[in-house]
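[agent] plan:
  1. take the single chain provided in the ticket
  2. run structure prediction with default settings
  3. attach structure tokens to the ticket
  4. add a short note for the reviewer (M.T.)
[agent] executing step 1
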Amino acid sequence: MADCSTISKNSEKSSEDRRAGHPLATGTDGLRDPFGRLHESLRISVTDRCNIRCFYCMPAGPISFLPRDEILSYEEIARVADIAARLGLRKLRITGGEPLVRAEVWELIARLRKNRRIEEIALTTNGMLLAEQAEPLRRAGLDRLNISLDTLREEVFERISRRKGLDRVLEGITAARAAGFDRIRLNALSIRGLTEDDIVPLADYALGHGMELRFIEFMPLDAEEGWASEQVLSGAEVRRVIEAAFGALLPAPRSVASQPAVDYMLKDRPGRIGFINPVSAPFCGACDRLRLTAEGQIRNCLFSTTEWDVRKFLRMQDEGAEQASAIARQFTHAVEAKKAGHGIDSPDFLRPERSMYQIGG
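[agent] step 2 finished; step 3 output follows
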């Protein structure tokens, strides 16, 4: 397999590739699906393992995780990322499971950072291991952190995650700020009957520490299939609670047209509060995201029931143009098959067989 220096050199050869008729040279207009959406974002899961057991993501009982030899190596991930970047996917987010349980994940960040086509690298984490890893992640070139924080109450944290550890998450956030991360976003899942009393404290905490906060509606991706529409605490309801406590929320400019959140600001307080409403207000019309699972399957939607295998091509003996072309075709096929929307609100919606921890957040 080619090392990172080879990958970086390959990234600088686009003009030579075009002259030579390279299989990736035809993607000058990027990856557009049948609805005209240009894809620029790739979410890369590095593991299906996690150190907590949130009920909206993983089952409580014993779990059969993927064998180590089925998980993509960092070298293989970097290879796919290079091909993806040459196809126009230049914004990466590292996910899991919990990505920080993967040994020295900052080494992957450093590999990806050397690729000049990649414009942004973010990472989504539950924060439990962040205090120990914030500094090496920052040194490796990680641009942005998304940290899951559904509550500031330990008893609710334990009900959701089935583990203790809220203090460790808060320590991780403090360590990340001290390490120099100035782009930290907190993600809070909104669940009726459980997190209503956390809305105002979370907003106050995020705004007081200069961090973005996004409330996310509960989606049908829980491993135990206990999701019911009655559990969805809608973004509109959460917004009303915040406005009652802090005053009117004013629309904030959209920094990225394809972002899933609708962001707001307060008139007299810095910071942003956003709402991701996949159930009550689907945002599929501007989706620019693809996903790569930990074992090397491309998914064109979080709720997709089809996957496109790239691992089988990564492990071919031929590592040259034939391999790159085959992997590029898998990306193309995935984008060509993308539907207009996820269809949660449709009567013929089919829930994916895999749960969030197996797909990658």
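[agent] step 4 note for reviewer: The longest strand covers residues 269-276.
[agent] ticket updated
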